[in-house]
């Protein structure tokens, strides 16, 4: 029913880069809602555009409270996700 992808790994080298974009991490995902009040940034290349969120994407945490889930409603444009989140 779903294609499941894991987001981009964060590294110090790519923390800012030449094309920084805001991204979601597990701390942004709560049970049933997303907190976008604090977003970090890292570089996402043209090949990594697949990590850009689209409205109605389902995000699931793999760490912390495993299985914590929320739906991205397209609150902002150009938001990506990192590797501790699974995207369905």
Short summary of the structure?
The chain has 88 residues and is mostly beta strands. It contains no helices and nine strands.
Describe the structure.
This protein is an all-beta fold and 88 residues long. The chain contains no helices and nine strands. The strands form three sheets. The protein has a four-stranded antiparallel sheet with strand order 1-9-6-7, with no helix packed on it. Strand 3 and strand 4 (33-34) form a beta hairpin. The protein is globular.
Helix-strand layout with pairing:
Blueprint: E1 5-6, E2 20-24, E3 29-30, E4 33-34, E5 40-43, E6 57-61, E7 69-72, E8 80-81, E9 85-87
Parallel strand pairs: 2-8
Antiparallel strand pairs: 1-9, 2-5, 3-4, 6-7, 6-9
Strand order of the largest sheet: 1-9-6-7
Total of helices? 0
- Record field, number of beta strands: 9
Mean pLDDT: 86
| Percent in helix | under 10%
Segments where pLDDT lies below 50 for 5+ residues? none
Radius of gyration: 12 Å
Which of globular, elongated, flat, extended, rod-shaped describes the shape?
A: globular
Beta-strand proportion = 25-35%
Give the N-to-C terminal Cα separation: 9 Å
Structural class: mainly beta
Q: What is the ordering of alpha helices and beta strands?
A: EEEEEEEEE
């Amino acid at each position: 029913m779903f294609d499941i992808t894991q987001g981009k790994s964060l590294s110090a080298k790519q923390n800012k880069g030449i094309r920084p974009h805001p991204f979601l991490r597990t701390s942004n995902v709560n049970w049933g809602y997303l907190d976008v009040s604090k977003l970090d940034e890292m570089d996402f290349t043209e090949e990594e555009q697949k990590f850009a969120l689209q409205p109605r994407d389902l995000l699931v945490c793999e760490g912390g409270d495993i299985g914590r889930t929320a739906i991205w409603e397209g609150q902002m444009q150009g938001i990506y996700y990192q590797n501790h989140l699974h995207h369905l």
